[in-house]
Specification:
- The chain has helices at 3-6, 10-26, 38-52, 71-83, 87-112, 115-127, 129-135, 141-161, 164-181, 184-199, 203-210, 213-234, 236-252, 265-272, 277-284, 287-292, 294-312, 325-338, 347-357, 359-366, 373-389, 391-404, 413-440, 442-454, 466-472, and strands at residues 59-60, 63-64, 458-460, 477-478, 486-490, 501-506, 509-513.
- It is mainly alpha-helical and 521 residues long.
- The chain has three domains: 3-31 and 66-253, no CATH class; 344-440, no CATH class; 443-513, no CATH class.
- The longest helix is centred in the last third of the chain and has 28 residues, at 413-440.
- It is globular and about 75 Å long.
């Protein structure tokens, strides 16, 4: 990276990139309670592993959890053993995985292109709203994306250079991905590489790679031990639960109400890559130019396959499409490096911040039409939090700052765009997400800690908050409570239980004791 290209010293730029990754991935990961359902479920399964010392099969609330393979739980377990049962410990493996993901992206683009594009691609990755969220979440997706990126980079390198070492790296990364989230870690690289090698008229090399006995052996050494032992331990329940339900079932049918149209992921991507949304659209407008370039062509195949695969799947969740984001950041990095008017792309994050500034007014207007008591309580909680910190003013100032940065003298326009985009991402990381945690999850944590202090045995009814198990350090039956029992429920359903003694209530979450039946005379 030539210093004169951006009027800043190369070392300052690289230090700034490191700071950006730190703020997006690591800073504040222990400051807020775990989010349900996913963070709570992963963390509780790890806590139960720690308690039971069963390091083979994961359990959630005492029942086998076949949702995901073992690797993320092992990494969380190592972290918890080192730092204790804390939010920081549960989230640290994801944050470190995101850092490795960013580092791999920088190294790959610097080798294939140049350091300037590597800087921009990595910065855009770190700034992405969705990436920064999963990087700070105690779930498997940051680790999976890291494995996918490394395997795909190695595949591209192999096609260009035909080095066997690239095959081994790809298969090892796929093996770790399969230990993280299952067959998707093989499906995406195999399908993408087949289409790319076909486009390059190089299928002979593709077959030579996938049939490499050493690479296959390496993959099997990584994958087979746990999968074999898990099957021997759990038998057909593992096959049905993991492969049939949580893999085949997600594509053949909608699970847990997570469905959507074929266009479901279009708005997800437009918001997910923010603050780079208009930069993405500008990049895709150069489709013919992109297709003519081998690296961009590879990236389009990769991103396009992921988009099509999960658009056709019956179960849709926002984070699925992130598996195809890495090549988009590489493409956008190249676009930004060549852009003559990058300041135009600052309009999108500024507009998003202004929309956020209008949220309290919008919520107040919609509040009378909301009929669900829990949602009403949560909206009122958000309104209270926003009023306390003067949220509209903060977001309006952030929007103005995003635009004013574009007028900074002696700083290149592309760098100003990165700085302006950082205003949006940091606002989300350090203002919006903590506020959401206080409203949605702090009541669960406080209720759980109360139950722990008082030694209460809890029944969970009509709600599902796995983080409650983490904070209370105990399990709970999920059923309608009986007389004399203590129940965790919501304002939606507490009235159906008749008279109760409310031990705790906040933002619609209620911990209550059901009166004991009078003793017979």
């Amino acid at each position: 990276m030539k210093p004169e290209a951006h009027n800043l010293n190369r070392n300052i730029l690289l230090a700034g990139l490191g700071l950006l990754c730190f703020l997006s991935f690591l800073a504040g990961i222990g400051s807020g309670p775990l989010f349900d359902v996913d963070e709570g479920a992963f963390s509780e399964a790890t806590r139960e592993m720690l308690v039971s010392k069963n390091y083979l099969t994961t359990y959630l609330n005492g029942m086998p959890r076949f949702d995901k393979p073992i690797l993320i739980y092992w990494l969380q377990l190592l972290s918890v053993r080192s730092f204790g049962i804390t939010e920081f410990a549960f989230r640290l493996p994801s944050a470190l995985s995101a850092a490795v993901w960013a580092g791999a992206t920088f190294a790959f683009v610097r080798r294939e292109r140049n350091e300037t594009e590597a800087f921009f691609a990595t910065a855009l990755l770190a700034l992405s709203l969705q990436v920064s969220i999963i990087a700070k979440a105690a779930i498997a997706d940051a680790l999976l994306n890291c494995c996918l990126a490394i395997s795909m980079f190695a595949i591209y390198r192999y096609q260009r250079e035909k080095r066997r070492s690239s095959i081994y790296i790809a298969f090892a990364a796929m093996g770790l991905g399969v230990l993280t989230k299952g067959p998707v870690a093989v499906l995406i690289p195999f399908a993408t590489s087949f289409m790319f090698f076909l486009a390059e008229r190089d299928l002979k090399s593709w077959f030579r790679a996938i049939l490499n006995p050493t690479a296959i052996a390496l993959f099997l050494v990584i994958v087979l031990p746990w999968y074999t032992m898990e099957y021997l331990d759990q038998g057909d329940a593992f096959i049905q639960g993991f492969f049939m339900k949580h893999n085949v079932g997600r594509f053949s049918g909608s699970m847990e109400g997570h469905s959507g149209s074929l266009l479901y992921y279009v708005p997800v991507i437009l918001v997910g890559v923010m603050p780079s949304t208009t930069l993405l659209l500008s990049s895709l407008a150069r489709f013919r130019t992109l297709v003519a370039d081998p690296l961009s062509r590879f990236g389009l195949i990769w991103a396009g396959f992921v988009f099509l695969l999960f658009s056709l799947a019956s179960t849709k969740l926002p984070h699925y499409v992130i598996y195809g984001y890495t090549p988009l950041f590489v493409i956008m990095g190249a676009t930004l490096a060549r852009s003559t008017r990058p300041w135009l792309h600052s309009i999108a994050p500024a507009a998003m911040l202004l929309l956020l500034a209008a949220l309290p007014a919008i919520a107040q207007r919609l509040l009378p039409s909301i009929t669900q008591p829990l949602v009403v309580a949560q909206v009122q909680g958000f309104l209270g939090e926003m009023a306390a910190i003067r949220f509209p003013m903060i977001m309006a100032v952030a929007a103005a700052l995003c635009l004013l940065i574009q007028a900074l003298p002696r700083v290149a326009p592309a760098i100003r765009l990165i700085l302006g985009g950082a205003v949006l991402t940091m606002s989300a990381n350090f203002i919006i997400m903590p506020m959401a945690a206080r409203v949605l999850q702090e009541p669960v944590r406080e209720a759980a800690l109360l139950a722990k202090r008082q030694g209460l045995k809890i029944v969970m009814w009509e709600v599902y908050y796995p983080s409650f198990f983490v904070y209370s350090g105990s399990l709970a039956e999920r059923r309608q409570p009986l007389a004399g029992e203590v129940v965790l429920t919501s304002v939606d359903d507490i009235g159906r239980l008749g008279t109760s003694e409310r031990l705790y209530e906040k933002h619609g979450i209620i911990l209550a004791r059901i009166p004991a039946e009078p003793a017979p005379r």
